[in-house]
From TrEMBL:
This is Acyl-coenzyme A dehydrogenase. Pathway: Lipid metabolism; fatty acid beta-oxidation. Residues 195-294 form the Acyl-CoA oxidase/dehydrogenase middle domain. GO terms for cellular component: cytoplasm. Residues 84-191 form the Acyl-CoA dehydrogenase/oxidase N-terminal domain. Its cofactor is FAD. PANTHER family: ACYL-COENZYME A DEHYDROGENASE (PTHR48083:SF33), MEDIUM-CHAIN SPECIFIC ACYL-COA DEHYDROGENASE, MITOCHONDRIAL-RELATED (PTHR48083). Keywords: FAD, Fatty acid metabolism, Flavoprotein, Lipid metabolism, Oxidoreductase.
Amino acid sequence: MMTVFILALLVVIVLLGVKSIRMQFITRPIFSFFKKVLPPLSDTEKEAMEAGDVWWEGELFRGKPNWETLHSYGKPKLTAEEQDFIENQVMTALTMIDDFDIVHNRKDLPPELWEYFKKEGFFALIIPKKYGGKAFSAYASSTIVGKLACRSVSAAVTVMVPNSLGPGELLTHYGTKEQREHWLPKLASGEAVPCFALTGPEAGSDAGAIPDTGVVCRQQFEGEEVLGLRLNWDKRYITLAPVSTVLGLAFQMQDPDGLLGDKEALGITCALIPTDHEGVVIGQRHYPLNMAFMNGTTQGKDVFIPLDWIIGGPQYAGRGWRMLVECLSAGRGISLPALATAAGHTATKTTTAYSYVRHQFGLAIGQFEGVQEALARIIANTYQLEAARRLTTTGIDLKVKPSVVTAIAKYHMTEMSRDVLNDAMDIQSGKGIQLGPKNYLGHAYMANPISITVEGANILTRSLMIFGQGATRCHPYVLAEMETAAMEDSCAALERFDSLLLGHIGYAARNAFSSLFSALTGSRFNQSPVSGETQQYYRDMTRLSSALALMTDFSMLIMGGDLKRKEMLSARMGDVLSELYLASATLKMFEDNGRQHDDLPAVRFVMATRLQNAAKALDGALRNFPNRPVAWVMRALIFPIGNHFNGASDKMTTELVSGMMKPGPARDRLTFLCPDFEQDKGGITEVEDAFKAQYACRQIHKKIKTAQREGVLPKKLSNLELFALASERSIITQEELDALLKADELRLAAINVDDFDTL
């Protein structure tokens, strides 16, 4: 047996170590096979692959994350100027918001709020200071949008769109000097209101398939014949279109007469057009789930514009898709995650408060384990949302364009906000479903599908983008191998592929060994950058990262180009990457917060959930892998003794809820986007005041409960009768009676809902 093993080892050494033999028997056949199974890339897919940057997700995809790199990114912080803006202008704006009036009566923001937003620079958060903008960080912009969203989705969307994908961002990054100097000051001051028209009836998530055209031609413009574009478009779902004064437009640029060169189809191009320009039609208004932010249609037929109106000038003709992909980070990584995180902060603040002040069967509903189960999910998801918001904006503020990360953030954070709002509505029930000025959940609940739909529908984001782009972009060898396969010089291509192949074989072998060894040893020998309770989480994540890298290699080898059509399979593997990213964000926020002990219950619950979800996704991919013998091999390497990631326990649930059912720093850190203030018109401050008053009276209530158990006080009395009798029998003092009466008054106000005259 030993002789056979030694001979086999010698064969492997010769095959891999002697270049001429390796090239003949390994490299050449594999290269030929690789070119056959290579997934074909469309032009838009190729541009998407090349656009943006690989960031932390690259570490997670490669099987051995460098956790010190994660910790080196720094903690997101507000500058003094950003903090001042939030404490003053943002807080002032919040006092001006009456969301029920905005949505149900005005169906628009009040004129004074529009003017305040323009005057105070809410539409200029990302515009450079030299043009009159704020030049705020992504983290600050996200925080501002989040705070507004806690009171009004309609107001938040109105502010986020000019600071998201659109004219302001595109001009800042790509505009000519003349375009920036003309438009950016107007956008910063609010004189110009922008919108960006990308989506149409035939192009939604597949934005690269837009049918709108711009044909190069010569035509009269301002008294002289110029070279320009004859545009035809039909767009819908365009936010701010009904009130816009300048339209960003994406279209397919064509040059059939060869006026610019020998290329007829130039590709997607972006232009900037005043909405009062001849032929521009701002059409009918939409009502996205009855929200009041402006959204509508725009059309144009044979609209002529000069080439200089292309964003970036004529040299950017045909480069629009790459521009859009690189700039989508604002919508996917800042704005929509901010809305999702705001939903979490609001739900956590109000539902923990409501669960304390709302009583059934003689108990606060937060004491029922069924309620605690849903409440724990709300709190844990909110911790996760805040952590992901911070890490994602950190990447954007580091000036990287992490397209895969922002796709993860967009999909998972908007889905988590849906879960949070569903759980909050279940707990607050009647309080949540009766619309009125006191209802702080209803509009966010109604609006949630908007975030899930826009910037790429979530279903397709999950099944096509996260793994589809991530596997190729983040893999240390595959993209280079694909480029090698496309080389015209076959000899040079084979030489390059040979060097890549050796590295790839070593990489795959390392991940196979790491995955198996980690599984057999419970990850105990994997490195962790920290000691203490969280170190095992880092070790387990390294194990799952190795498993993902291993399975990615097997999948691409076995299925090749067919993998992108196996959407359910690739979506599951994308889920593994996403769960690892979200878990990374959680651990980083715990470190950034100074490893606060009262954050540990949330960290435990979140990490148990993330690891369970990642392992479940791997298990699902293995069960559905089309080549069963290969699936058996992978299972033996990944789960040799089974899947033992079991998720959060009941004990974790009760510990998390009990720690958040009282005022304190941990709760404040998790609800800071949702402030309470005296002029609040939306019911949040009302339920928070009731919660604090009731909590302050907890020892007084204990006295009364003790007296009831001892038979000194009867058990079946209304609160007012019970309090009066307790005072009369000197069980409580007059001061305590006054506190109880005030707290009960606040409690009744908080649990009551709005009612209206019948029609």
